[in-house]
Specification:
Order of helices and strands: EHEHEHEHHEEHEHEHEHHE
CATH architecture of the largest domain: 3-Layer(aba) Sandwich
Number of strands: 10
Distance between the termini: 23 Å
CATH class of the largest domain: Alpha Beta
Helix content: 25-40%
CATH topology of the largest domain: Rossmann fold
Strand order of the largest sheet: 3-2-1-4-5-10-9-6-7-8
CATH superfamily of the largest domain: HUPs
Length: about 280
């Protein structure tokens, strides 16, 4: 059974992420764990935009039970016994990665705020910390994303066609295999398609055809002066419903704060974005 983890803070974008996760669990018959992290050491000052701040175990558990009842009532096929609630004490950016190590979710689903110009405006500090700290796949669902239960027709997987990407691709196929989905494996070529190593695409394409015979896939390049614009154009032209990308493991924390392709794509995404880790 696939295990989903949803960190909750009761803000609207959290509710949107629960609905999206429930849609996945509906098709995959998965287990959902909703977790809220609280601490009585913080006041409510400055927390107005982060949801309903709760500083006690009992209130947090009560809120989770209510959220479970209200949000999941539209998903009758989900066994409510497979929706678990966890209330943990501590800062979420520390507790969630720790919980992931013991619970080992197949996917962490988190809501994000509306599109903005800064890291906090787009992701919120907790979501960004979770993405950078955990080794589990993390799905970021934008607050303004229009939720449709069965809408997962096209997925864009940004790749470099290296063999190290095969693990991420396998996880992606396992997650979306229950949907009628086409996976677009695409490499961005800043210097044009004629500069790309065609052998890598060919080898990758052959691997996909032999390994995932029942999974529709295409392998292609996108080019242009700007990866943001090129990716957005591809998303629009191909009606992409989800963006997937593998984050490269870095050795220094300071490097995580530097501009990267992953963050540049995410900062402009208006569809759910799935992060794998290497």
């Amino acid at each position: 059974m696939i295990k989903f983890l949803i960190p909750v803070n009761f803000a609207p974008y959290t509710i949107n992420s629960i609905k999206y996760c429930a849609a996945l669990a509906h098709h995959l018959k998965g287990e959902i764990t909703m977790v809220y992290c609280y601490t009585h050491l913080l006041s409510n000052e400055g927390k107005e935009d982060e949801g309903n701040f709760i500083s006690s175990y009992d209130d947090a558990l009560k809120g989770l039970k209510k959220l479970k009842s209200e949000v999941l009532e539209d998903f009758e096929s989900i066994d409510k016994d497979h929706v678990k609630l966890e209330v943990l004490e501590g800062y979420p950016e520390d507790i969630i990665p720790e919980f992931c190590e013991s619970y080992a979710p197949d996917l962490v689903v988190m809501g994000t705020k509306s599109k903005g110009e800064t890291i906090k405006e787009l992701l919120g500090s907790v979501t960004l910390d979770v993405i950078t700290k955990v080794q589990n796949p993390v799905m970021a669902v934008p607050n303004n994303y229009e939720f449709v239960l069965d809408k997962l027709t096209n997925i864009l997987f940004v790749t470099d066609f290296e063999k190290c990407q095969y693990t991420s691709l396998h996880k992606l196929v396992n997650l979306v295999g229950a949907f009628d989905t086409k996976i677009h494996n695409v490499q961005y070529c800043p210097h044009g398609k004629d500069k790309a190593v065609v052998e890598k695409l060919t080898e990758y394409s052959d691997y996909c055809k032999s390994t995932y015979r029942n999974q529709p896939m295409v392998c292609d390049y996108i080019e242009g002066a700007n990866i943001i614009d090129s990716t957005e154009e591809y998303i629009t032209a191909n009606n992409i419903d989800m963006l997937a990308i593998t984050r490269r493991k870095r050795n220094a924390i300071s490097q995580l704060l530097q501009p990267s392709r992953t963050k540049k794509i995410l900062f402009n995404a208006e569809i759910p974005t799935l992060f794998f880790h290497q």
